[in-house]
Amino acid sequence: MLPLRKLFTRSADLRTFGFGLIWSTLGTVAVRLTPLITTVLISHWFGIESVGKFAVTYGTLMSASMLAATGVSLMATRNIAAFAKTEPDTAGRLAGMAVLLAGGTGVALALAIYVFSDEIAGRILKQPGLAFYLRVISPIIAISALNNVQTAILRGLQEFRTTARLDMIMGILMIGSVPAGLYLYGLTGGFAALGFAYLAGCMITTPAMLHGLRSRGIRFSFSGSLSQWPMITRYAIPALLASLLYEPVNWICTTIIVNKPDGLEQVGLYFIAMQLETLLLFAPQIVVQVLIPMLSSGFGEKDSRRVRNILAMSIGANLAIAIGFVAVMMLFGDWFLLLFKLDPARDWPIFMIVVLAAAMIACALPLGQVPVSSGYMWTGLSITGGWAATFIIGTWLFQDQGAKGIVIARAIAWGLQTLVYIGFTHFAISRTTSHSKEASS
């Protein structure tokens, strides 16, 4: 067996995966810590009901931002990775189209949230007092969408070191400004500070993105960008529809819960549970960020052996991480609950479900990128649609259990989706093997 150092030196994929994982981890920690720190501060300074207000408003921001940018971002990452070397002009037009679409969609959604804030808060959420906060976060939607697609372009170029540095700057801005805004002006100040951090991050990311493209001989261009429209119908539209079935589905499920008599408290408890899931999954999701361009290259080259090796590396890394965080939470879970002024005896079952579900999700995340990377975007959308339907129906059935009901529904949905991903991955790799044999003959 080769020594680890020689194996690492010889394997280009292992090197790319390893260094990408390290840099992406460093960059993501600070950004992911901000909602966690913010939730701790709100629970201590303002109480669990204010956590619920923050959760619903922040969830609206994330849902709208993902709706504006996720489909376009996945299209940009996947196709810029595929065309950067072989067709740099196409890659440049794809980057221009991605920025145009994300920016335009973000502005449209921001205006819609601002104009209809009273109707959303009063009629849908049954919480009229949230209308003001919805207006405060509406401009952040457009800025966040633009920032997300810029970062996606850099990931398509496999500029993991650059994205890590940008994420660290963004994290420092968030961690420094959001708590200060909360302390001085409450939730309004916290959201305003968040908007400042996103705006500063967007201004810093723009020159980094342009430099990354130029360094690979790619000219960023709006001219002729809409000629790449087939990429929208093949990749961005199904990815966009899939994004409709993730964060917005969470928003729908929290809306079901928030309409109950103690709805804000239950949503606050669920939001804290999701902060735990975010904390546990931040490293596995970084693995996925590194994985997408590598898998796209493997499927593009119809190299099934490379695809298997990349998936094995990513699933192995996530499995090790999952075992670690389950062990840590079993030992120190009570401390986490006390951090948020929760009662371990009452609330531990909810968080235990979240921990075990997060372990399952961690191992399934790499398989979830196979439809995107192999070009079966519409199949991936169908799988996601099944997850969404299961989650919403389960939440409706278990709504009387509040936060516990929604985490049970979420765990069931992810379990079924994981089984489907396993079957589809086997199919996609088999198809790649057969195409490779046909090409060689």
List its salient traits.
441 residues; mainly alpha; 2 domains; 15 helices; 88% helix; globular
Name the overall outline. Answer: globular
Nearest-integer average pLDDT:
79
Low-confidence sequence ranges: 6-10
- Element string (H = helix, E = strand): HHHHHHHHHHHHHHH
Roughly how much helix do the residues carry, as a percent range? over 70%
Counting DSSP H or I runs of 4 or more residues, the number of helices is: 15
* Percent of residues in β-strands: under 5%
**How far apart are the first and last residues' alpha carbons, in Å?**
33 Å
| Number of spatially distinct domains | 2
What topology does this entry show?
Layout: H1 4-10, H2 12-45, H3 48-83, H4 88-115, H5 117-124, H6 131-156, H7 160-215, H8 229-244, H9 247-258, H10 263-300, H11 304-339, H12 344-368, H13 370-374, H14 377-397, H15 403-440
Provide a descriptive summary of the structure in words.
Pfam families: Polysacc_synt_3. The chain crosses the membrane at residues 21-48, 54-74, 94-116, 136-154, 166-185, 191-214, 235-258, 278-299, 311-336, 348-368, 375-399, 411-429. The chain has 441 residues and is mainly α. It folds into 2 domains: 29-244, no CATH class; 254-441, no CATH class. Helix content is 88%, strand content 0%. It contains 15 helices and no strands. The chain has helices spanning 4-10, 12-45, 48-83, 88-115, 117-124, 131-156, 160-215, 229-244, 247-258, 263-300, 304-339, 344-368, 370-374, 377-397, 403-440. Helix 3 (48-83) runs antiparallel to helix 9 (247-258), helix 8 (229-244) runs parallel beside helix 14 and helix 12 runs parallel beside helix 15 (403-440). The chain is globular. The two termini are 33 Å apart. The model is unreliable at 6-10 (pLDDT under 50).
